[in-house]
UniProtKB/TrEMBL annotation:
<dbReference type="InterPro" id="IPR016181">
    <property type="entry name" value="Acyl_CoA_acyltransferase"/>
</dbReference>
<keyword id="KW-0012">Acyltransferase</keyword>
<keyword id="KW-0808">Transferase</keyword>
<dbReference type="Pfam" id="PF13302">
    <property type="entry name" value="Acetyltransf_3"/>
</dbReference>
<feature type="domain" description="N-acetyltransferase">
    <location>
        <begin position="169"/>
        <end position="231"/>
    </location>
</feature>
<dbReference type="InterPro" id="IPR000182">
    <property type="entry name" value="GNAT_dom"/>
</dbReference>
<protein>
    <submittedName>
        <fullName>Acyl-CoA N-acyltransferase</fullName>
    </submittedName>
</protein>
<dbReference type="GO" id="GO:0016747">
    <property type="term" value="F:acyltransferase activity, transferring groups other than amino-acyl groups"/>
</dbReference>
């Protein structure tokens, strides 16, 4: 496992490997709520992004972004604080922090939601100094899209999944993501997904079961998931109702299941 730590900002982060060594994944930053909200508002009002997303409101307003980032800052506080303490202990400072042999308790949260492009590093240490927010990746307890809406089976599956304690191997996790249109098609998200799973979710959340989904026609997301060894388990016709605001009719969804690291 490789979790990095910025000693200047006291921020833990994940580092993507080459050829994307300029990309990191960080928690949300309370002092950059306005900056993140502005970027989110731009991306989530772009048809190349919103056409393929189920959740965010549309039109997406700046205040939606502010509320979202504030919520995530509050949710991640305990995990980030714990990581800071782990990195700041003398023994971990001598052994590259969280990459020491001793494994702490499992977490129930993925804190590295923000995908950022580093624009400046410390020339001596390589520590990121400046970056730009370019996307979002989430790992949360799965909602079982393959089960019928409002059915007892769906309610029971969600209830059982949410009640499992942190680190339980039977938790089914759900993966979601989006990327700035300017960054799409470069392969960044494929590597970000693998990094999130390999460097955090497996060693620190004990992830064993993972599902995701994409709307039929979303070739980019389909490729991201295929590259990360997700296999289709079902296609559900007209799963998402028409959205006149977006100018979209009913949309079918493909549910996929992760088959392990390649």
């Amino acid at each position: 496992m490789v979790v990095h730590y910025n000693p200047l900002t006291k921020e833990p982060y994940l580092q993507l490997p080459a050829p994307f060594a300029n990309i990191i994944m960080t928690p949300h930053r309370e002092h950059q709520i306005e900056e993140a909200s502005t970027a989110m508002t731009e991306f989530l009002n772009d048809s190349r992004v919103y056409s393929w997303l189920q959740g965010p409101p549309y039109p997406f307003l700046h205040e939606h972004g502010v509320d979202w980032v504030k919520m995530k800052v509050a949710e991640q506080e305990e995990v980030v604080s714990t990581l800071q303490k782990e990195f700041e202990t003398p023994e971990n400072q001598q052994r590259d922090g969280l990459n020491s042999p001793k494994q702490p308790a499992f977490f129930d949260y993925f804190p590295f939601l923000c995908i950022r492009e580093v624009t400046e590093r410390d020339p001596a240490t390589g520590t990121p100094l400046q970056d730009v927010w370019i996307g979002d990746l989430s790992l949360t307890r799965y909602d079982f899209y393959e089960l019928e809406r409002n059915s007892p089976e769906l309610a029971q599956a969600q209830k059982q999944n949410k009640e499992l304690p942190a680190g339980h191997k039977d938790i089914v996790w759900g993966l979601g993501y989006y990327l700035s249109p300017a960054q799409q098609g470069r392969g960044i998200m494929s590597v970000a997904v693998r990094t999130a799973i390999q460097d955090w979710a497996i060693p620190r959340m004990n992830l064993h079961l993972l599902k995701s989904s994409y709307f039929v026609g979303n070739k980019g997301s389909s490729r991201v998931l295929e590259k990360n060894n997700f296999k289709a388990i079902g296609t559900f016709k007209d799963w998402h109702p028409a959205n006149p605001l977006k100018g979209l009719g009913p949309m079918s969804i493909v549910v996929v299941e992760w088959k392990g690291l390649l």
